[in-house]
Amino acid sequence: MRASLIQIAVDEDEAVNSRRSRVASLVREVSARDGSDLVVLPELWTTGAFAYESFADEAEPLEGPTYEAMSKAASEAGVWLHAGSIPERDPDGPLYNTSLVFSPAGELAAAYRKIHRFGFDKGEAVMMAAGSELATFRTQDTTFGLATCYDLRFPELFRGLVDAGAEMFVVPAGWPARRLEHWLLFARARAVEDQVYVLACGTGGAHAGVPQAGHSVVVDPWGEVLAEAGDGEEVLTVDLDPGKVSATREQFPALKDRLLGQAPPQRGARGA
């Protein structure tokens, strides 16, 4: 299967509606040009991940304008579309950092509310509620697990996704440039320890004056970097072999030696 990661550069002078239309056009153009089966967008590309002051003003219901634009783009392009994440306003009041995935028919295939919010005692951590459920979606070829940005620092989330059947992780992000090496390290670590593909899609530009790392990256189950972007707006297109996940796990069956967090091994009767 072929995946394209669109590393959006968030320009604060570009209106949200204009960016939404531009990105929808990019989804259609990239999928037509590259023959993509899956297209991935970054975290909070409508507002910027560090533009905290705009979260409340730009928050939208799940089936809001971004949902409508991305659903249409997915169906017109005939691709699976991970539409990055939006500041979602729940009808009951809380804000969530919510990822949306659409099928080639434009139907919502999965939604994931980010569990680990960044900021410690400010920003996203206090302005948005935490999600509580893991999310996956299944294509004809494989199962994808969903995570977002800061989630990369919490390996237990990814082990949970492996237990749910995930063979590829999609991680949209708005990762700051000053911690670029952490971003690249964690993407490779999650791939190696869980023997999966990692598709990590970041943003370029600057969010509220915070330079973004960019460097979207695709890593295979052995930890090899298949493609890596620079720090501006860019598209990565990579061919993925879903069979490589099972082959890697058979060749080097480390996951079978997990003990912590697993049910105790069953022992046979003495003398058996």
From TrEMBL:
Keywords: Hydrolase. InterPro entries: C-N_Hydrolase, C-N_Hydrolase_sf, UPF0012_CS. One of its GO terms (molecular function) is hydrolase activity. CDD domains: nitrilase_5 (cd07583). Residues 1-242 form the CN hydrolase domain. Belongs to the carbon-nitrogen hydrolase superfamily. NIT1/NIT2 family. This is Carbon-nitrogen hydrolase. It comes from Streptomyces venezuelae.
